[in-house]
Predict the structure of Flagellar biosynthetic protein FlhB.
Amino acid sequence: MAEDSDLEKTESATPRRRQKAREEGQVARSRELVSFALLSAGFFGGWALSGHIGGHLESMIRGAFTFDHATVFDTNQMLIGAGNAGIEGLTALAPLLALTALAALVAPIALGGWLLSSKSLEPKWSKLNPIKGLGRIFSPNGAIQLCMALAKTLVVGGIGALAFWNHHDDVLALVTQPMSVAMTSAGHLIAVCCATTVAGMFLIAALDVPYQIWQYEKKLRMTKEEVKREHRENEGDPHVKGRIRSQQRAIARRRMMAQVPKADVIVTNPTHFAVALQYTDGKMRAPKVVAKGVNLVAARIREIAAEHNVPLLEAPPLARALYYNVRLDAEVPGVLYGAVAEVLAWVYQLRRFNTQGGAEPVRPSDLDVPAELDKRGPAAEEDEDIEDIEDVEELDPQARGNNDRGNSASRNDGGRA
C-alpha cells in the first residue's frame, strides 16, 4: 500500500517542475478565452469604429458604381477600380483587424503568461501515431472537450436564436421602412444579437478557464518519489553531504586548534569546558575567544596549551559564561570585561615572574560573572561545539580571514609559564 501511495500523483508541482514544463511549452491555455476575446474585440471594435468603417465602405461603394459610357468597356479602368475598392476596404478594416490581432495575443498571455519555446515546435512522431490519436479522442479529456464544444454551440446558438426571435417582428418590419431608417434599425438589431452572443461566450469562457487551470495543475502533479528524487538532486545525496560536513568539521577543528598556541590564557571548568582568550594591545578593541570546546575537544585544547606553555586558569563560572555567550572569534562582551581583565592581569604578572622572578602572582578567584550568563546553553556536546565553529564562519566570513591571518602573524610569547 505504501508503494502504491508513492506512485500516485498526489503532490503539488515543485517550482523546478513548473519551470521545466514552461521550457517544454506546457502552460495553461483556454481556447474559449481566446474565442471570447476575439469576438469581443470584433464586436466592440466594430461598434467603436463604425463611423470610420462606414465612411470608407460608402466611398468604396460609390466608386464601384460610378462609371460612364467611356470607361465601362475599358478593362484597365476596371482593374484600377477594383484596386481602389480593395484599398478602401483594407483601410476600413485595418484598425479592426489590428484590434483582433492584439486580442489574440493578449488573451493567452492573461492566463499562462508570455512563452516562446522552441521545444513545442520540435516534431514529435508520437503525435502521428493513429492509435494514440484515437486514444486521446476517446479519453475522458476528449469527452469533456466534446461536451464543451456542444455546450458552446448550444449556448451561443441558443442565445443568438433567442435574441433573433425576440426581435422577429422588427426584422419583418425592415422591408416596410425607408432605406435610411431600415439601415439604422438593422444595425441596431445586429448589435443586439452580437452583444448577446458575446455574453454567451463570456459564460463559456468563465467555465472553461477554471477547468483548464485545474487540468494543468493535475497534469503537473508529482508522486512522492519524484519529489524526493528532485530534492536529492537539488540538495545532493545525504551520504555525500554527511561526508562533506564531516570533512568540514575536521578542517574547522584543525583551524581552531591552530589558534590555541597563540592564546594568552585558557580558562577551564576544569574538565568539561575550555575557552582560549587572546588580546593584543593596540590591535584589538577587546579580548576575543579564539578557541572553545567541551569534553574531548576541551581536553585537546588543554593538551595543546600545555605543549606550548599557555597558562591554564580554573574559573568554572567564567569558562561557562564565555562558552555559552561568546561566539568563536568574537570579542568578549562588556559585562565580562572586569573578570577577563583580572585574568589577563594575572597572565602578565605571571610572565613577569617567569622572566624577572619575585613573588609569584596569586591566581584570581571569585571573578565577577553575572549569574544570568553562568547558565547552561543549548550546546553541550563535543560535536555541537564543532558545528558552532562552522556556523561562525558561515555567518561571519571575517572569522575565516581572522583565523588565516592568525596563522601567519608572529607574536612575542616570551615569559609564558
In short: The longest strand covers residues 288-294. The two ends are 70 Å apart (CA to CA). The first helix runs from residue 2 to 7.
